[in-house]
Amino acid sequence: MTIYNLGSINIDYIYGMPHLVRPGETLAATRYDSALGGKGANQSIAIARAGGKVFHAGMIHRDDDHWLADMITAGVDTQFITRGNTPTGHAIVAVDDAGENQIILAPLSNASLAEDIIPSILAMAQPGDWALTQNETNLTVPYLKAAKERGLLICYSAAPFVAEITAQLLPLVDLLIINAIEADALSKTMGKPAEQLGVPHLIITRGGDGADYFGKDGCYHVAATPVDAVDTTGAGDTYLGYMLAQLDQGVGMADAMALAAAAAAIQVTRHGASTAIPDIHKTKACLTAQHTKA
């Protein structure tokens, strides 16, 4: 099967900091790097490195093709990425010595997608394929509605959390993966616990405390792989990408969650977002080692 991801593409400017900057404070960085980022691009790379087939759709500035190298190397099909005159989206990412992060987003080209690209993205899609998108681009609502009409399964990454969009899309969603903070915000918006919203498959991630599943397969908890994190940027994207790739390949929900947890655990022990996402061989070896220890 195939995954069609309409997703953000950012240039990440990454600064290592002694601590996260406080209001009014000026603080010198201890480390600097730049890399491909954006929730959409991160998730597509994670899907590809997990063995999934993924087409990525989005927009960058016409002079920024070189930033797509990591996606192409990972195996992401980029034929639906358009070019324009609007600057490529970017993010300023601060990471402190404890691995916590602080991110400022400038959407730019991510918010400039033309609606007429949707039919071309979905032209090859078949019922049972997956459509994926996040809240870092425009067209989230029309894209997922069009995908649902074609019989695609819907995975929605409701981050950054926008209450109105999330509430509107819930009836379309087959798989919703959100963290505990997003789940609390969604519960407040909808007036009931997230696990009672009727989403067929809901996963609430809890960082080092693992993840909870609620849905057609029952209710259960899958533990995280214990590690010492150095940078949590992109961990949720790694988890989602691995989850979706495994489900698309017919892996059961609990096994997919365990592999996604192992991938995220490896990812947070490395600096960066997309560059830190492990491949499937490293991830399976990590999971095997964890089971051997247990």
Give keywords:
single chain; 294 residues; alpha/beta; UDP-N-acetylmuramoyl-L-alanine:D-glutamate ligase; nine-stranded mixed β-sheet; four-stranded mixed β-sheet; 9 helices; 27% strand
**Which structural category do the helix and sheet elements fall into?**
alpha/beta
Helical region count? 9
Strand content: 25-35%
Radius of gyration: 18 Å
Unreliable segments (pLDDT under 50, ≥5 consecutive)?
none
Q: Would you kindly provide a written description of the structure presented here, covering whatever features stand out?
A:
This protein is of the alpha/beta class and 294 residues long. It has a single domain (3-293), classed as Ribokinase (UDP-N-acetylmuramoyl-L-alanine:D-glutamate ligase, 3-Layer(aba) Sandwich), CATH 3.40.1190.20. 32% of the residues lie in helices and 27% in strands. It has nine helices and 13 strands. The protein has helices at residues 39-49, 69-74, 118-122, 140-149, 163-169, 180-190, 235-248, 253-267, 280-293; strands at residues 3-6, 10-17, 31-37, 54-61, 77-84, 89-96, 101-106, 130-134, 153-157, 175-179, 201-205, 211-215, 218-222. The protein has a nine-stranded mixed β-sheet, sandwiched between helices. A four-stranded mixed β-sheet has the order 3-2-6-7. Helix 7 (235-248) packs antiparallel against helix 8 (253-267). The longest helix has 15 residues, at 253-267. It starts with a strand and ends with a helix. The mean pLDDT is 94.
